[in-house]
């Protein structure tokens, strides 16, 4: 598995997400808290077909963390990419590694 | 099996109700149901007929949901009248030449207005008041008339008089008897009513016997001639001299007719032909027919139950009524005229407040026999229950009608005092027991009770009592209605607001640690973000708040479907200089933005890339523009008309006021967005009554309307106060805004908030105008702080370079989102559709794997 370095974790404000361009692909990175923990999902909202998920709100339901799309509020699981509203839909999630504060993602 | 044919003649309020009963009971499946409807439209709400003149349209009055008859397999012949019944052959004949056999027949033909045999009563200026068609004709005639008279000073006559008044003609009421509403009121009550009505400009003539209406006159088109020799010139006449049961076809078919008219029925609502029922105003039970809708509804229920083989009986009906006529509240219960043997009365009369109340009580003082209320009907609900349920009266029955300052310590007639059999909603015959059962079954809001039991969905008069019963039941069963905003906080928005203020909480982290649990979600985060902003007025993008905001607040623009943003600068009051417009045009040109006038009287630029936003706004703020908060739950705009400065009709400077107001409240975060409107005169070109705050100029100042809404469920605002000077107006709006901010639910527009506020606009007036809660000083000082804290969010953002990093699309690249593509359209452009971007996607559109890397 090859990890691609993206940025320093300080560039992701706790509680928000950013979008990274990795090998031509748009990946949304989320940092739920000020811990060194980051999740990576596809940036494209599969319903609207727009690259917006990194701009959603991170939320907790059923004791799990999700990202709510800023367009129509469908929620996607930060770990698995599954959609809470529609089980037939899921987006890709990617492994993340943080070494010395550098966030790296494997596609 | 062949279905039995059941024909309903007449599709009025009761006929329709009967069909609903058939459908609800499942009977409609066993019968082939055919309905004849003489009027050109299906059943509508005749009780609220007059509101056709104010804001209803014919379709809004309809009682039949779109597609209801079709969905239930019911055949309706609209505009077709049954002319004959052949009982031997069980066959009907219609005026369209149709012949139709029936197995069961239900007559629900209602009644018709009776017009006395006065010479001239057939002229083209004569009308009755019964159907939408009647009202349309009256409306047309009023347009070419200056004056009109209503013959008949009863309940319907006064209602018709109200309509004439509203149509703007000089209005006369002619009554044969010495007092108005002789059937429902006693003499003093009638006099009080008359004084009040005359005060609003209706001319009342009592003890007048109309002999003739001549179709000529000096000042008007017609002259009414009375038995006492006097005359009155008016342009048109509306007859409201009583109703008669529509029993003609029944009479011809030799069904039994009561001696005073009406198709005679037994307790099952059957006529003397067991296959024929009669219900509603056309029916006479025990020699009595009823001109109100509730007894008709009861008959519909009984007749349907009889078909089902159930034993329900019609046992007469109570004729008590509570009405608002020409703006005057009137209530009549039981023996209003005190005709019972050995009864005694208690009377309260207050000429200052124009209130008259009388109780008629049994000799032993134990039982209420009747009541008259004019000018103040707040006691009606309680008195009616005392009367209907024969509840023992308190020791001093007069305390029931005395105001508190006169020593009347009102005995609280809690819902608990009522027996389970007490009918709470007489329109739909719903008892207290039915409501308790519904609560036990989990229907715990007034709205749910309404849709589950139908209680409160007729005249609406019982709604306060439904609320009381509901609350009492909820309290008893220990159910608390859950209004928690989400799983992370066991509080309503209002409670959270107080917790923030009282605990001086300034961040979401403090809040969830102290009062919540878990991480938070897309509901509580922005809600608390908005509360923090409403309380402390800090920049929404201060670092500690960034993670709370929806993307719209986060990037200070509204996200569009393709992920680009809109740019909507403030144009207070709709004003913009040519020069500023020039800058806007140049920016739109340079950044290739789609440009349109928004629905809120300003210019919107659409399709801005996120990383362009700071520079776009940099240029706009340099030119003097500020953010328009189109993305925020905050004041959007004050829509104005040109007002007295330009318009020949304007009486005040509406643009000036609108722009001052918009600038005063801009930026303050509110539970939902807010919109203001200011019109320069009553023509209302700014549509202020459809706004959260609507202001309309008068000769003497400003009228303040609140709780209007366009949008999903349009609502006209309620008048809060009239003829205000600007300082008072602003003080009221200050209090209104803060009171709304403090007490509304999340994402609750003022319209919905007001509808849910106990006591409605009257209560609000007490809070804001009378300062009944004693909180206004506090509200005023809080809003002053928020106003003082205002800063343009875009100016602040641009001047904090560190906050600009977030606007890049990628954290690790300067490239842009290549999925944002435009297609040209009408000399501008729009976002490309999916199929335009990916001409031949494989597989199911939603799940297709998008491969657009090189
Ligand atoms: C841009 C605009 C349409 C246009 O092209 O003209 C618009 C666009 C949107 N409206 Fe609107 N509304 C616009 C005027 C209106 C008006 C007309 C008015 O203000 O006089 C109304 C009816 C009046 C009213 O609100 O009472 C209106 C009633 C709504 C509603 C219904 C609100 C309600 O409670 O009834 C929503 C939905 C909501 O807020 O929950 C809504 C929501 C929206 C949203 C925010 C939907 C969304 O979440 O994306 C739209 C995106 C705004 C954007 O991209 O900037 N918009 N919207 C108008 C912007 C006005 C402005 O300059 O700020
Ligand atoms: C202005 C006004 C205000 C009122 N306010 C109140 C109030 O506040 N409270 C209250 O309780 N009541 C009020 N009423 C009375 C209430 O509207 C009636 O009690 C109710 O409409 C009676 O219903 P119904 O179905 O019996 O008769 P209707 O509603 O009159 O319906 C009968 C229908 O049958 C049709 N029809 C008649 N003959 C035939 C035929 N041969 N073939 C086919 N169709 C036929 C008629 O055209 C009519 O449409 C008011 C009435 C008016 C006019
Ligand atoms: S509301 Fe009145 S003042 Fe304003 S434009 Fe219309 S007519 Fe003129
Ligand atoms: S009494 Fe009329 S709706 Fe309940």
UniProtKB/TrEMBL annotation, chain A:
PROSITE patterns: NIRD, RIESKE. GO terms for molecular function: 2 iron, 2 sulfur cluster binding; metal ion binding; nitrite reductase (NADH) activity. Its main location: cytoplasm. One of its GO terms (biological process) is nitrate assimilation. Its EC number is 1.7.1.15. It comes from the Bacteria. It is an enzyme of class 1 (oxidoreductase). GO terms for cellular component: cytoplasm; nitrite reductase complex [NAD(P)H]. It is found in: Cytoplasm. It holds the Pfam family Rieske_2. Residues 4-105 form the Rieske domain. Keywords: 2Fe-2S, Cytoplasm, Iron, Iron-sulfur, Metal-binding, NAD, Nitrate assimilation, Oxidoreductase. It catalyses: NH4(+) + 3 NAD(+) + 2 H2O = nitrite + 3 NADH + 5 H(+). The keyword Protein transport does not apply. Associates with NirB. Required for activity of the reductase. PANTHER family: NITRITE REDUCTASE (NADH) SMALL SUBUNIT (PTHR40562:SF1), PTHR40562. NCBIfam families: nirD_assim_sml, PRK09511.1. This is Nitrite reductase (NADH) small subunit. It comes from Alginatibacterium sediminis.
UniProtKB/TrEMBL annotation, chain B:
[4Fe-4S] cluster binds at residues 641, 647, 681, 685. Residues 633-768 form the Nitrite/sulphite reductase 4Fe-4S domain. Residues 5-303 form the FAD/NAD(P)-binding domain. CDD domains: NirB_Fer2_BFD-like_1 (cd19943), NirB_Fer2_BFD-like_2 (cd19944). InterPro entries: BFD-like_2Fe2S-bd_dom (IPR007419), BFD-like_2Fe2S-bd_dom_sf (IPR041854), FAD/NAD-bd_sf (IPR036188), FAD/NAD-binding_dom (IPR023753), FAD/NAD-linked_Rdtase_dimer_sf (IPR016156), NasD-like (IPR052034), NiRdtase/SiRdtase_haem-b_fer (IPR005117), Nit/Sulf_reduc_fer-like_dom_sf (IPR036136). Its cofactor is FAD; [4Fe-4S] cluster; [2Fe-2S] cluster; siroheme. Pathway: Nitrogen metabolism; nitrate reduction (assimilation). Residues 423-471 form the BFD-like [2Fe-2S]-binding domain. Binds 1 [4Fe-4S] cluster per subunit. Residues 321-386 form the NADH-rubredoxin oxidoreductase C-terminal domain. Residues 560-621 form the Nitrite/Sulfite reductase ferredoxin-like domain. Keywords: 2Fe-2S, 4Fe-4S, FAD, Flavoprotein, Heme, Iron, Iron-sulfur, Metal-binding, Nitrate assimilation, Oxidoreductase. GO terms for biological process: energy derivation by oxidation of organic compounds; nitrate assimilation. Homodimer which associates with NirD. This is Nitrite reductase large subunit.
